[in-house]
Write a structure and sequence with these properties.
By secondary structure, the chain is of the alpha+beta class. 59% of the residues lie in helices and 8% in strands. The structure holds glutathione.
Length: 239
């Protein structure tokens, strides 16, 4: 059985990591059996979560993992997409994972003290008290440098959240009144979209981007539908 290595569940959502939600959602959408191993990124093959073990292979990076799962177990979710639709899905996936994701990272690691404390407790609360604060502070330096390296960390918070609103607008407009991002059937893009969106509007990290995303009724309802369909055992503060 596939072993899914990811952070412990918290906040009433599948995971505090956007990419762990993405992968677990994909596994549930495709009904592939898996078991969860709770861990931190320190032991991960590429230093990041999630990663999987399957038939003796260790694979990291959700994009490469999805490619592996599709080639090994079939691509049932995306078969109905035309090449044009697949192109659009890939472009939106990149918007979510390579841009909006980083705005979430700023909100958690480099915005308010309250957000940092909430984030710190969710990730490092599993560690013994004596090493928790040191590990969290060292990790914070590492993530802040990633945020700066990405480039988004060189902008002001006002500029960052304005760019985030553009992402939210494009997602809200593209989803429109559809059930899923690519139409009336779920596709891999929904795993990614739900992973980033639930971690934007459905977690206790406060920011102008969370407020703005929650005002987009179709995005809020989409997250409620996705969670009810694929993670009915969990409940988050969606009202
Ligand atoms: N491109 C990777 C991104 C994974 C990623 O950024 N994971 C974060 C958690 S959301 C992580 O483990 N970060 C730890 C670190 O960068 O030290 C994927 O698709 O899996």
């Amino acid at each position: 059985m596939i072993k899914l290595h990811q952070f412990a569940r918290t906040w009433g959502i599948p995971n505090l990591s956007q990419f762990c939600v993405k992968l677990e959602t994909y596994l549930r959408m495709t009904k592939l059996p898996y078991e969860i191993v709770e861990t931190l990124p320190l032991k991960a093959p590429r230093g990041k979560l999630p990663y999987i073990e399957d038939n003796g292979n260790k694979l990291a990076d959700s994009r490469l993992i999805l490619n592996y799962l599709k080639s090994t177990y079939g691509n049932s979710l995306d078969m109905h997409l035309t090449p044009e639709q697949q192109g659009i899905a890939t472009a939106f996936q990149r918007l979510l994972e390579e841009h909006l994701y980083w705005i979430g990272m700023v909100s958690r690691w480099n915005y308010t003290e309250d957000n940092w404390q909430t984030n710190k407790q969710a990730i490092f609360g599993v560690l013994p008290p004596v090493i928790r604060d040191v590990a969290a502070s060292l990790y914070r330096i590492r993530i802040k440098s990633q945020i700066k390296g990405h480039g988004i960390g060189r902008l002001t918070h006002k500029e960052i959240f304005e760019l985030g609103k553009e992402d939210i607008d494009s997602l809200a407009h593209f989803l429109g009144s559809k059930s899923y991002f690519m139409g009336d059937k779920p596709s891999s893009l929904d795993a990614s979209a739900y992973g980033i969106l639930i971690n934007t509007l459905g977690c206790p990290i406060e920011s102008p981007i969370k407020d703005y995303a929650r005002q987009q009724t179709n995005l809020l309802q989409y997250c409620q539908r996705m969670q009810a369909e694929f993670f009915p055992e969990l409940s988050w503060a969606s009202n």
